[in-house]
């Protein structure tokens, strides 16, 4: 008999709710701290709002892990209605605390309902791509054991690759996602860095992938990196690509060029995603990115 599965995910996934074709989904909002005050994303407090404050007010922003009580509240409300819960978690290599919270909750409920915690090894639209890959897997397979589902979830993770163009890596550094040396790379050498989150990298950390002196150079490099990864994995077509931009008004020409080049890739499904408040903390003004799922 087909299992009834609830999926839980944080709102740092680079997607709008109506871009996720799955009814049994709970999206938990990350707390975002701006100059000491906590916010959760809504129509007023969003990525554009934070980027504007970065540019005009030089605010200090950070995020906090998903509150355990928020996740527990969802499970308490739903555990009797489902056979299984899958929690898609941002990379433990970027937020060990988030995965620790998820594991504590899994152990708390192990005699009540099984929970699979999926370490996505991703942030932002990489999390969204892993989520959509897991949803595809659930829809395509009617009756799998928990062990089989766990194994297939891991395969989705290992086939997801995300490339980021961050004009200023200092925001990643301030948020604790990279070291000081990495953050200085762009500003000291006057180059534009490319960094990535590779699903086949067990550490789940942000890795340097390339650099260029112009955005056009960088955009070409990103497309080349994707094609190299496709060749490495013996894939002729991308299953799904998710592009996210909209962190302020900077780099509009570069972003238009990036989107045009991304759309020329062989791809079954191309999605323009949504920037979020919590990811704006780390992206900074003018950032853009692409996540590809190679099935």
Short description:
The protein is α/β, with parallel strands linked by helices.
**Structurally, how many domains make up the residues?**
2
Strand segment count: 13
Which term fits the overall shape?
globular
| CA-atom Rg in angstroms | 19 Å
Label the structural class. alpha/beta
List low-pLDDT spans.
176-181
CATH architectural label of the largest domain:
2-Layer Sandwich
Q: Tell me the series of helices and strands, N- to C-terminal.
A: EEEEHEHEHEHHEHHEEHEHEHE
* CATH class (first level) name of the largest domain: Alpha Beta
> How would you state the average pLDDT, rounded?
92
How many helices? The count is 10
First CA to last CA: what distance? Answer: 26 Å
| Main beta sheet | 6 strands, mixed
CATH topology of the largest domain: the name is Hypothetical Protein Tm841, Chain: A,domain 3
Proportion of strand residues: 15-25%
Into which percent range does the helicity of residues fall? 25-40%
SSE layout and pairing:
Elements: E1 5-10, E2 25-28, E3 32-34, E4 37-39, H1 47-57, E5 61-63, H2 68-78, E6 84-89, H3 96-108, E7 115-119, H4 124-140, H5 146-158, E8 160-165, H6 170-174, H7 180-189, E9 192-198, E10 207-212, H8 215-232, E11 238-244, H9 252-263, E12 267-272, H10 277-283, E13 288-293
Parallel strand pairs: 1-2, 1-6, 6-7, 11-12
Antiparallel strand pairs: 3-4, 3-5, 8-9, 8-13, 9-10, 11-13
